[in-house]
């Protein structure tokens, strides 16, 4: 797993082993680990080489001049460089790179979706439509996939659920004329977001690119979105290049990030198309679409949780004094059980629970309760009840509940379990989870990744 590997190689830098100064050899070893981890996560070899060169350029001098006393500072510098380099790889810049497309109100924005069959175009179109509908855009869909049986029905079903108008045909076999007619009609009717679905097919099949070019010429899209399946790995780079040279891709959507995919392919897609990633797909529901943010993505890739996204969500709730206090503490790297309690309380107000919990720092995937939202809120309520049985001192971390083989601690845990009607194992599970989050917040606070400028500097 990429996050784990990167974290452990970055950990090497933290000089767990006493006062040896970080040397050029240490840096080489760390860069080699990072390179291997990225390669395993489907990042292309050239990109990995670039990344390593850039990091070396940034911190090489500091490392060769390093003494043991500045180790901690240097470790942070290297971490920062890794994060920054990964972030900039996900942010296209320089010659030939596409500016993020900005949707224009009151005018037709024709958005053409392309990508291989099964990449998730039709699903993403529904999510994309849902996203804009909720923000008040007049939205419509056109189905120019006449290749796959059932394609029109799939789009129609989604459109009907979302209550957006759609255009397509069961009998007309020419996707170009359908695309043209559909778009013309919705332009005339004053639609603002007009989404065109195309057929994907497999790479071997002839005629796909010609067809796409004809559709593209016929509808003259404002933006062409390449949809890529994150589970496709190394193959993505060549696919993305081929699509880009055929139809001038302007944006990328990465799908299926809810599975085991590690997202290295996303870096390749950006490199191959020079286009920004706009959304991430993380499930099959209309809500499972997140606006892309490079820093959040990298922070997740590194296993830090989506701290920034999480903070944004917390901020967007009515921010009481409590929350501000908590955010201040988190930026300092502090995270008590009481903070966890407040987080769980606010999480229950934030909507799709699995998504929000997935953003929590240090929340390992296996601890996110499985099942529907009902199942999850039950679990969450149970955690809250357990914490209700704790004393103020316990909640504020003035008493350590993690002491091993300590009769007094055992007694406290039994008391909390009895008070909340749970098994002591459940109390321990909660404490364990808190501990993981605490250590993650502490690391992030120290690395300054959480912003707020409160990071401790030596
Ligand atoms: P298309 O051929 O490119 O239009 O692909 P579809 O939209 O039909 O999607 C192919 C399959 O992938 C379907 O079974 C979708 O439900 C599934 N799918 C699409 N996006 C996601 C996603 O973000 N997560 C998961 N888990 N499945 C997805
Ligand atoms: Mg489709």
From TrEMBL:
Enzyme type, top EC level: hydrolase
Keyword RNA-binding: yes
Protein keywords: Cytoplasm, GTP-binding, Hydrolase, Nucleotide-binding, Ribonucleoprotein, RNA-binding, Signal recognition particle
Molecular-function GO terms, alphabetical: 7S RNA binding; endoplasmic reticulum signal peptide binding; GTP binding; GTPase activity
SRP54-type proteins GTP-binding domain span: 276-289
Record carries keyword Hydrolase: yes
Catalytic activity: GTP + H2O = GDP + phosphate + H(+)
Subcellular location, record wording: Cytoplasm
EC number annotated for this UniProt entry: 3.6.5.4
Protein name in UniProt: signal-recognition-particle GTPase
Organism per entry: Thalassiosira oceanica
Lineage: Eukaryota, Sar, Stramenopiles, Ochrophyta, Bacillariophyta
């Amino acid at each position: 797993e990429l996050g784990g590997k990167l974290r452990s190689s970055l950990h090497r830098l933290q000089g767990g082993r006493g006062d040896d100064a970080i040397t050029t050899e240490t840096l080489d070893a760390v860069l080699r680990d990072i390179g291997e981890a990225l390669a395993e996560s489907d990042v292309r070899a050239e990109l990995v080489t670039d990344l390593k060169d850039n990091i070396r350029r940034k911190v090489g001098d500091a490392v060769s001049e390093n003494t043991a006393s500045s180790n901690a500072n240097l470790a942070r510098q290297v971490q920062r460089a890794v994060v920054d380099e990964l972030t900039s790889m996900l942010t296209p810049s320089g010659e030939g790179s596409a500016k993020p497309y900005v949707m224009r109100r009151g005018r037709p924005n024709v958005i053409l979706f392309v990508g291989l069959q099964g990449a998730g175009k039709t699903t993403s179109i529904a999510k994309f439509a849902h996203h804009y509908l909720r923000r008040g855009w007049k939205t419509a869909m056109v189905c120019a996939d006449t290749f796959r049986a059932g394609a029109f029905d799939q789009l129609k079903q989604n459109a009907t659920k979302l209550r957006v108008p759609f255009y397509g045909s069961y009998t007309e076999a020419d996707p170009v004329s359908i695309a043209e007619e559909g778009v013309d009609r919705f332009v005339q009717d004053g639609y603002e977001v007009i989404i065109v679905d195309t057929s994907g097919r497999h790479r071997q099949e002839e005629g796909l690119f010609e067809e796409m070019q004809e559709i593209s010429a016929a509808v003259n899209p404002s933006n062409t979105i390449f949809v890529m399946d994150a589970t496709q790995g190394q193959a993505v780079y060549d696919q993305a290049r081929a699509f880009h040279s055929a139809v001038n891709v302007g944006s990328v959507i990465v799908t299926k990030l809810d599975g085991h995919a590690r997202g290295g392919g996303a870096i390749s897609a950006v490199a191959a198309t020079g286009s920004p990633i706009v959304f991430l797909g993380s499930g099959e529901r209309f809500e499972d679409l997140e606006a892309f943010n490079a820093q959040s993505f990298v922070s997740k890739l590194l296993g830090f949780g989506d701290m920034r996204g999480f903070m944004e969500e917390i901020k967007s709730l009515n921010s009481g004094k409590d929350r501000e206090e908590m955010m201040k503490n988190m930026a300092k790297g502090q995270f008590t059980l009481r903070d966890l309690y407040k987080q769980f309380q606010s999480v229950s107000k934030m909507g799709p629970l699995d998504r929000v919990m997935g953003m929590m720092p240090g929340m390992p995937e296996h601890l996110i309760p499985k099942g529907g939202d009902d199942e999850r809120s039950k679990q969450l309520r149970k955690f809250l009840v357990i914490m209700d049985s704790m004393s103020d001192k316990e909640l504020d971390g003035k008493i350590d509940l993690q002491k091993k083989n300590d009769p007094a601690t055992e007694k406290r845990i039994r008391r909390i379990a009895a008070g909340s009607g749970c098994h002591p194992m459940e109390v321990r599970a909660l404490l364990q989870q808190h501990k993981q989050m605490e250590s993650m917040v502490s690391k992030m606070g120290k690395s300054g990744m959480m912003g707020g400028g409160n990071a401790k500097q030596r």
